[in-house]
Amino acid sequence: MRRVTLFVNGTSTNGKVVAVYGSMEDLLSVASSKLGIRASSVYNGNGGLIDDITLIRDDDVLYISEGDSFEDPQDDFRDPDKCQTHTDWLTLNVGGRCFTTTRSTLVSKEPESMLAHMFREKDVWGNKQDSQGAYLIDRSPDYFEPILNYLRHGQLIINEGINPLGVLEEARFFGIEQLAEQLETLIKSSQPPDDHSPLTRKEFIRFLLATTTKAELRCQGLNFTGADLSRTNLTHANLSGANLERADLSMACLDGANLQGVKMLCTNAEGATLRSCNFEDPAGIKANLEGANLKGVDMEGSQMTGINLRVATLKNAKLKNCNLRGATLAGTDLENCDLSGCDLQEANLRGSNVKGAIFEEMLTPLHMSQSVR
Predict the structure, then answer these.
(1) Which PANTHER family does this chain map to (predicted)?
(2) Measuring CA to CA, how many Å separate 305 from each of 301, 323, 338, 344?
């Protein structure tokens, strides 16, 4: 077995020691994973292109490019700006909490991510800074911390009490695809045991037929995690306390449904109707729709005091005359959303997108302190 040291073309820092085996394609695959680039060419220290793995010797130093021509790594030291791109320290102010890291941490592991594009070159994006010079990012610091640690050492570590779904949404927001795939696998593997396993659409329909009464469908407290309920008629159903995380409710009808304390994290309810629904739980358990896809939904006249709609998508939704008092709408996409007649007193709209939203006839004026964008 031969061991070699790999560097990104034109640099002499952040090298990776790897074992050489198999073919050139195998080496390029390993280089892509270790260096976070799309490796396609291998050069020796003199700039010679290597196209035969048998030419590689033990302890060789190799330079990996994405198809561009060889660049002398000594230029990395002669050009201060280029060298600093990989070594200078940055402070990020994420949702009020500061994180200190290096520029290379943000750009090397996931070179196509939003963070890499923001910080690869200085001031290209015009990133805003606070009075201490920290770069401002309006996202959740609790969910950002596992992402930064992943970029540092490549391991997914989530502290107790942190919802992996929140970290997944942030990974998707920042375009960190490899991490998002790991999180999806983690969430899937942590599903409830067989005695509480998610229902298939067929099983759910069979359950409804067995429990339907003339008064209503009674489904409170049940687990429908990941269930396919698209286009299902659940008018006036009692779904209080039900778990509908990642369920497909697209184009479903839930008019008049009892949704007190329901869990709908990352649920897909695009195009569904939820008119005059009740999300308010007298016991104080708040309905959680964080990260849900609610594009084009009709929720007119629903009672949603204290509901959690953080980073949910409500583009082109109809929320006319809804009670959203004390609701969490931070980071929510409310583009072209009809909020006329809504009660938004004490609602948190920080970082929400209200482009084209309709606020006429609101019961409570929208205050600038609510920090919308």
Answers:
(1) BTB_POZ DOMAIN-CONTAINING PROTEIN KCTD9
(2) 12, 6, 17, 9
